[in-house]
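Reminder to self: keep the SMILES exactly as supplied, no canonicalising. Ligand is zinc ion.
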Amino acid sequence: MNKIDEVIKIESCPECHKTHSYKLEVTRCLIMGLMTENELLEKPSEKKLTRTFHCPNTQKDFEASFTLTETSMDRIEEVKVSGIVS
Ligand SMILES: [Zn+2]
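Structure tokens returned for the bound complex:
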């Protein structure tokens, strides 16, 4: 397993209607081994997730959906909101 920080942007916060960027801690399960031809040709698929975010302007929590990409070689195991960037 492999933890990567990714940053996502919430374009319009439901609480204050401003843009916020959040840091996500994404745990991916890398599947090692020989790749088959199908896996080499595979396009990343989009995974839709919903998490709770904290608005720094109103101090309220809200839920938002976002998408991350994964492949069968690189599956998303867990996504945590680890902080706010701006
Ligand atoms: Zn906000």
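Points to follow up:
The mean pLDDT is 91.
DSSP finds one helix and five strands in the chain.
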